[in-house]
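Renewal narrative, Specific Aim 1. Our central claim is that a sequence can be written position by position from structural information alone. The example that follows is taken directly from our test logs and has not been curated for this report. It begins with the structure tokens describing the chain, in the order in which they were read.
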């Protein structure tokens, strides 16, 4: 989990050019364990930027060093907030302009997840 947070923070900071802090982490389920001696690869990307927040997706893959087999261990979605350098208050972050079909899919799904997070935060039950 620590590595996921660091990878996501670096992605958010690179996108926004701001110090970015973790605001939320969605469910984290391990499909395959990370075992001692495995090579772990983390891939992070900002899926969508809102006002001061960004959704960052992180995919974790594990490689068995003896066989070379690579498996998808888990994925997580984290929300980060960019902070103004002087005031340390939330700051506006640059928007995302998706180009590929995959980027467009992640961009659209990020809005759905955001609506779900906000409804849960405010106690609204989705039907």
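The sequence written for that structure reads:
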């Amino acid at each position: 989990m620590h590595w996921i947070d660091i990878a996501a923070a670096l992605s958010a900071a690179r996108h926004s050019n701001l110090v970015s802090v973790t605001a939320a982490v969605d469910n984290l389920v391990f499909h395959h364990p990370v075992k001692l001696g495995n090579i772990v690869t983390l891939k992070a990307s900002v899926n969508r930027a809102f006002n001061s927040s960004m959704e960052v997706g992180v995919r974790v893959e594990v490689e068995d060093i003896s066989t070379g087999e690579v498996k998808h261990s888990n994925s997580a979605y984290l929300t980060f907030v960019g902070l103004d350098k002087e005031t340390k208050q939330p700051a506006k972050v640059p928007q995302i302009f998706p180009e590929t079909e995959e980027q467009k899919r992640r961009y659209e799904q990020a809005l759905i997840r955001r609506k779900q997070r906000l409804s849960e935060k405010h106690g609204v039950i989705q039907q």
